């Protein structure tokens, strides 16, 4: 493309990879599935954190949560450090006009985030930034004549599919598939049906947004990126560093009529890679001017071959309470270090009050190990902890050293001891 492309970044809450395009049966997600079919679906994409504000901070800065000061939820007092720059700030230097429509959870004052425009787009009945309301505002913005005059970044954030899932807003969607890490009972099935009802509603809103881009003849000059902050809000997913907590949907649709890659890929990708990749897609080589933790995949999208990532990292420090955990994941192995004693799962309040929790018993309150090691090839649901076993001692030692090196290189404050909460 000779002109700089537009970028539309759509992000949901708490979705993980619970979509038809990712192979989950019985889910109604035709709009996102179509974006995937027309673009690239990343099957091994990972958040840097299993909770909202830290995850979104990495997505929007290209740096790890602890490196930008976002070690917990924004409404609990965590904020970006003063020197932190975001995607809209970087793109402004390239001549982009930016808008945030709907959900953000990184700053009390959205002006801190660097957008030229901020549209709250709250549903008057609930106060939530619901998909339909957000898309109504996004469509009005996209249809303005100014959209033809300069390249734009539109970040479109939905409250969905965060809990709760009231049936009057999200009619339950049966049948459901119960993944092996959840108890298969009536409680869980009821909960998953409600979750899928929210997905159906949010997916329809995505379809409206993409159709408007088509009607406005913008698809030949616009990248569409779809993702979510972290895993689904169910036990052993959200708020954990197991794959169901940090594996995310990431679908990238190139502009129509271009020769960028399409299809599916197993290459490892981290949310910290999104900022440098988008900058390089906007202006080749732009990411080299940045000091970020992520790496650009733009050359790969253009058809070039590279070695790709060999590992991704994830962290949790605070959620509803202090719970410091760090992890490294490779194509085959997951190594988790629990820095403080506690229960095997420390459930956040929204999951603690869920139907699934009501039907799962209390096995999750037994003490957690200090270290966890999983062979993802043999044990993809991370049920058999191999830490301490002699036959994988070399693997454990190598992953521990790599995690140590990452913490040192990125200035992880956990290396200095317990991390204090904001004053």
TrEMBL record:
Alphabetized, the UniProt keywords read: Calcium, Hydrolase, Metal-binding
For this entry, the protein name equals: Arylsulfatase A-like enzyme
Gene Ontology terms, MF aspect:
arylsulfatase activity; metal ion binding
Looking at the record, the residues that make up the Sulfatase N-terminal domain are: 5-282
PROSITE patterns, alphabetized: SULFATASE_1
User: What organism does the UniProt record list as the source?
Assistant: Thermasporomyces composti
| Family listed | Belongs to the sulfatase family.
